[in-house]
User: Fold these one by one.
Assistant:
Number 1:
Amino acid sequence: MKMVFRWYGEGNDSVTLKQIKQIPGVEGLVWSLHDVPAGEEWPMDKILDYKRLADKHGFHLKVVESVNVHEDIKLGLPSRDLYIENYKRTIEKLAKVGVKVICYNFMPIFDWIRTDLFKEMEDGSTALFFDKAKIESMAAEDLVRNINENSAFTMPGWEPERLQRIAPLFEAYKNVSEEDLFNHLQYFLEQIIPVAEAHDIKMAIHPDDPPYSVFGLPRIVTSRDNIHRLLGLVDSPYNGVTLCSGSLGANPGNDVAAMVREFAGRIPFAHIRNVKVYENGDFIETSHRSGDGTVDIADVVRAYHENGYTGFARPDHGRHIWDEQCRPGYGLYDRALGIMYLWGVWDALERVKKR
Ligand code: DNO
């Protein structure tokens, strides 16, 4: 398990590279060019600027999260070919700075969805919260407004300019079924995977968060069966998954550890975090510890360990604790605590193995 840490870039993150350097066992940054719109080819000079910065602090840049997929690709429009070509050029450029994994998602219109970014927990910390009934009665536009008004940072996947395009996008998705979305993903993968293979970069699709349809939009990366199916669309080790325990874990019907055991060879990137799911379907993000949420994180780590996991892993969203002012879910303290929990479980398992 190679530990990496998500960082949003200079001026765009409350956490500094010096602070990340002091977390035990973190070897690389999980990064992106957040100001390049989805569908555009990434400029080499900006990639190299990032590389210089990472080098200066002794981090590698092997994991990108995300190179976003243009909506026309997900919609299967004729204009998709142009955006797929741009995606290929970006892959070629990223190979030049040593990138090995590209995380992306195939969620229509919205990336992750939450109703509260700073929901207060019993211990006084705050965390990202999903109120299922509220979402079901809410207009999509209000949710975008709510997210933007409550974060001091522009949130990837929720850029304010999205608001202007929402109505036509919903209209465009009206006749797109899950089956269509699978076909559009296949079309994308058939073109992208050979380029990824040639450049030794693994593509790792992120599950849908939450892992079910929201606002009537189709969502396909939701379950064991659908992940099995998408891995078969192009059956190559370069067509992989970012197995996110928190996204999949928001549906208690998903056995995350069993998925790790089944798909281990196809998980170049692991997102490890916990989530507490309530009976009515609401959920809140908790500390990483098994006992604090619904997902048995210790067992998830054990599943990776059993399979001799050598891929990349990052702690995922944490709570906002000790009065930290940070991006929702991406503070320093709780993610650093999360890392120490993951290492603790991992090292204990190593010790037992060597006995
Ligand atoms: C949320 C993240 C997602 C993820 C994308 C990958 O914090 O886990 O936004 O980065 O879905 O493309």
Number 2:
Amino acid sequence: MSVSRKSGYEIKLMREAGRVVALVHQEMKNIIKPGVTTKHLDDVAYQVIKDNHCDPSCLGYNGFPYTICASVNEEVVHGFPSDRVLKEGDIITVDVCATFRGYVGDSAWTYGVGEISDENKRLLELTEKALYAGLSKFKTGAMLNDVSGAIEDVANENHLGIIRQYGGHGVGKDMHEEPFVFNYRVPNGNFELKRGMTIAIEPMLTLGGDDVEVMDDEWTVVTKDKSYAAHFEHTCLVTDDGADILTKL
Ligand code: MF3
Ligand code: CO
């Protein structure tokens, strides 16, 4: 496995890509409410990315036809923006990637639409908690399996399902670089994090099981048991002091 370590200049570009991704999320947070379509979210995201001298990295990636992935309720990842109208109580994951001068920032966040149930609040809080538990282990010299394990522990302690077919990944010139990051401990997880690596950490947890299937559009991934899923992701730089989150303001 060859994992690149970014130069100071490359990190500057990635930080700018990440800043713009964070700007998109700030805007999503403001506009997500009952009555809004997911296509509108896509249009706004496209405009924010373009206004900030970036390109939408997902648009055209392996043929993906939109700027954002918009995954509602039991949809886990890769949902298509559409004329679907968000309603009170829905949860929606917006996954955003932007490219600045060839370098990618990648971050996903799950939002509640209006008032959501206590059960869904708990799902969102704990999935975000799992992300930060993973990031608390993320630093120079640490083992990637410990990042994965911290995520797994939050899920298990709270009886949440862990999506197994998808996970985090290196990010840089490509949206998906090595290493793959499992959201649970694996037998061969002794990969050592080194200063300058840039990796997206992204737990995907559910209120039910961990089985998923891909819908007829060949993209949208849903839970088999239709349980709701949440997904929180940041692109992070490995430093001696811990995770330097690139996808924030
Ligand atoms: N942003 C997603 C990730 O976290 C990938 C989106 S896949 C695409 O890896 F094809 F829609 F771009
Ligand atoms: Co990602």
